[in-house]
Design a protein that fits this description.
Layout: E1 16-28, E2 33-44, E3 48-54, E4 58-64, E5 69-75, E6 78-87, E7 92-101, E8 115-119, E9 122-126, E10 146-155, E11 159-162, E12 165-172, E13 175-186, E14 193-196, E15 199-203, E16 209-213, H1 229-240, E17 248-253, E18 261-263, E19 266-270, H2 278-289, E20 298-299, H3 306-322, H4 328-340, H5 359-376, H6 378-392, E21 396-397, H7 399-410, H8 415-422
Parallel strand pairs: 1-10, 16-17, 17-19, 20-21
Antiparallel strand pairs: 1-2, 2-7, 3-6, 4-7, 5-6, 8-9, 10-13, 11-14, 12-13, 15-16, 18-19
Helix pairs in contact: 1-2, 2-3, 3-4, 3-5, 4-5, 5-6, 6-7
Length: 432
């Protein structure tokens, strides 16, 4: 099946939307066995006789409340439910799937594995861009944003985190049940579960802020990276507007990780990022900035990934200047010089599935924003960032919407100005 997004083949269904996921999970660490029941509250967007869900674990029982299921088929990571009676556009329906299996990363040609992954002693879930079906049935398209309730039962000596606010923790014998809620709508790939032998450190900040990690994590370069998160989030609130979730959590695994992992209201880092070197500090800033750009305001298609990564990369440069390192202008000159000597194979507005997470997408996106700042002026530029988030929080956006938004704020048509930055491969010069 072609799928909803040309960048992610075989995932997502444009015929309906999910408003809410209610996930009840039980996980056994030694055997990597996940048993789950998912209840999806959905709405038909067009006449619907079939519902297609993305899932890589075995469905055991499938039902649709108040409607007769004529049959269901599970093939190639796709659960297709055929309904005896058609659902009309605008009608709500509820799908319940009981499922089980041994979750693991989903592998697709030309892209890194994504999804549920075992650690030495625990679990991480990194679903960008196609890994959500590795652990729950979903409509896996980036434009389908929903709220979540999650309960997870696992061994009592492990700590659990989710992309939402903790609601309750209850111990029963050798197990604990962890309950969470996410009231802001998020895309399926932004929902995560993290399991490990962790302790919690609360940081005093303008929003509820927590660091969850091994008990001895502060012995490393913690102070310069995670220790400055309260200052960092206050700075970003000033530049980007109110924080879009109820709190923020940084999970630090005992295992080293090659890159941090983005998810809604929570970011995951390896122990190696608790360091005072700039490469670690910038990535702490990068993942925090994604809460505004990528998680609250989300591209409707993966081709517009620069609206996530370019913005988060530019936030690194802003924080660098704020904390006394290189200025944003210096970073822009530095990376422009590097990109100017490279041959770019695709435009920023359509980087292709194989290249969408390449470093040039991040850096050229940030350079576009820096050039825009020079073009419209300091006051208008930061007003654009704040109003972009406030206007589209909880929604899905396109590059064309951003161009229109900037044009309205600047009170002149900027489409022609954006074209060489977004639609051409040759790198424009930076403003003097």
């Amino acid at each position: 099946m072609r799928g909803a997004d040309p960048y992610i083949s075989g995932h997502g269904d444009l015929r309906y939307a999910v408003a809410h996921y209610d996930l009840s999970l039980t996980y056994a660490l030694p055997s990597n066995k996940l048993d789950g029941t998912a209840v999806l509250t959905c709405r038909a967007l067009e006449p619907l006789s079939q519902v297609a869900l993305d899932l890589r674990l075995k469905p055991l029982k499938v039902s649709v409340a108040g409607r007769r299921v004529s049959r269901h088929k599970f093939l190639g990571g796709r659960l297709t439910i055929s309904l005896a009676e058609q659902v009309e556009p605008g009608e709500e329906f509820t799908v319940t799937v009981k499922y089980s299996g041994n979750p693991g990363p989903i592998r697709k040609r030309g892209q890194d594995p994504a999804g549920w992954e075992e650690l030495e002693d625990g679990v991480i879930v990194a679903s960008q861009p196609h890994g959500a079906p590795s652990w729950f049935p979903c409509n896996d398209r980036v434009s389908d944003k929903a709220t979540y309730d999650l309960s997870l039962v696992t061994a009592a000596d492990y700590h659990v985190e989710f992309s939402g606010e903790p609601v309750a923790v209850q111990r029963r014998g050798a197990n604990r049940t962890w309950t969470f809620r996410q009231t802001e709508p998020i895309a399926p790939y932004l929902a995560t579960v993290q399991i490990g032998r962790y302790t919690v450190t609360e940081q005093e900040a303008v929003v509820p802020l927590r660091v969850v990690g091994p008990a001895n994590i502060k012995r490393h370069g913690f102070a310069a990276s995670f220790g400055r998160q309260p200052e960092m989030i206050a700075f970003f609130v000033d530049r980007f507007g109110p924080y879009p979730f109820s709190g923020y959590t940084a999970v630090i695994t005992d295992d080293p990780l090659e890159i941090p992992l983005e998810s809604a209201s929570l970011s995951t880092f390896g122990r190696n990022f608790a360091s005072d070197d700039w490469e670690s500090v910038r990535l702490v800033a990068h993942e925090m900035a994604h809460q505004w750009f990528g998680n609250a305001v989300t591209a409707g298609e993966w081709r517009d990934i620069w609206l996530h990564e370019g913005f988060a990369c530019y936030a690194e440069w802003l924080w660098s200047q704020e904390c006394g390192h290189r200025s944003a202008e210096e970073w822009a000159r530095h990376h422009h010089g590097i990109l100017a000597e490279e041959t770019q194979r695709a435009p920023l507005s359509d980087p292709t599935p194989a290249l969408m997470f390449e470093d040039w997408v991040y850096k050229r996106g940030a350079l576009t924003l820096h050039a825009l700042r020079s073009e419209v002026g300091e006051e208008t530029f930061f007003a654009i960032l704040r109003s972009w988030v406030s206007s589209h929080r909880g929604g899905s956006v396109t590059t064309q919407q951003f161009i229109t938004h900037c044009s309205q704020a600047a009170e002149r048509d900027l489409a022609g100005w954006f074209r060489p930055w977004l639609d051409e491969t040759e790198l424009p010069g930076l403003p003097g």
